[in-house]
Write a structure and sequence with these properties.
By secondary structure, the protein is mainly beta. The protein has a single domain, classed as Putative cyclase (Glucose Oxidase, domain 1, 3-Layer(bba) Sandwich), CATH 3.50.30. The protein is 9% helix and 26% strand. The chain has a seven-stranded mixed barrel. It has a two-stranded antiparallel ribbon with strand order 2-3. It has a two-stranded parallel ribbon with strand order 6-8. Helix 2 packs parallel to helix 3. The termini are close together. The model has no long low-confidence stretch (mean pLDDT 93).
């Protein structure tokens, strides 16, 4: 067993559906206001007569599809490199919210979840293509403070949403971040669930091993099988 979850991920059967829920990282992707925009520096290129291609990139640790660790909001919180790799291979449950603005606690009252599962919210952010657009949208579906509290009571290991923040853009107290990260729950932001049906999956979302940082971009993938 891998960390008590699912073994043999490298032997995924050909008939298992795989969903890449990451957004492409380039200059066309929206960036959270005030954060570092993506840029690339062509250091070496075949067109310049160089013997190889070599590119430098500049971006935020929170750009695109990324994981927040508790150190994002807590001075003594765990940093992204402090987690073992098996922490990022876990059972996941995708749930859909019909909310046009904020996911409320009432939507989650009947939700059941096995402790340690990743809880991923599919909203109109995915369905409308908002998460893939170049311009940042201040009005996106987010998680209310009370909904975040209910999520924390379900004891997931990770909560994900399909835009670049789980909190409202207008709420600079970041209550959902504080609720979840304060409970030791990782936050996965900027996922694209437009092609993913509601249901249970295996999630792999490995961050870069960035020493001492509070976040990292990830390649997040769902496997449509609980037996992977």
């Amino acid at each position: 067993m891998i960390g008590g979850v699912y073994p043999s991920l490298h032997r995924v059967a050909a008939d298992v559906k795989v969903y890449d829920i990451s957004v492409p990282l380039d200059e066309e992707l929206a960036v959270y206001p005030g954060d570092t925009m993506f840029s690339r520096d062509i250091i070496m290129a075949f067109e310049k007569g160089d013997e190889c291609a070599l590119t430098g990139i500049t971006m935020s640790a929170h750009f695109g599809t990324h994981l927040d660790s508790p150190a994002h909001f807590f001075p003594d919180g765990r940093t992204i490199d402090s987690y073992p790799p098996e922490q990022f291979i876990l059972p996941a449950q995708v749930v859909e919210s019909a909310s046009a603005d904020v996911i409320r606690a009432e939507e989650l009252r009947e939700l059941t979840l096995s402790p340690g599962t990743a809880l991923l919210f599919k909203t109109s952010n995915s369905l409308s293509g908002l998460v893939r657009k170049k311009a940042f949208a201040e009005n996106y579906v987010c998680l209310s403070e009370k909904a975040a509290y209910v999520c924390a009571q379900l004891e997931p290991s990770l909560v994900g949403i399909d835009y670049f923040s789980i909190d409202s853009f207008s709420d600079k107290k970041y209550p959902a971040h504080f609720q979840l990260l304060g409970a030791g729950i990782l936050v996965l932001e900027g996922i694209d669930l437009r092609e993913v049906p509601v249901g249970k999956y295996t999630l792999c979302c490995f961050p870069l091993r960035l020493r001492g940082l509070e976040a990292s971009p990830v390649r997040a993938v769902l496997f449509a099988s609980e037996t992977v």
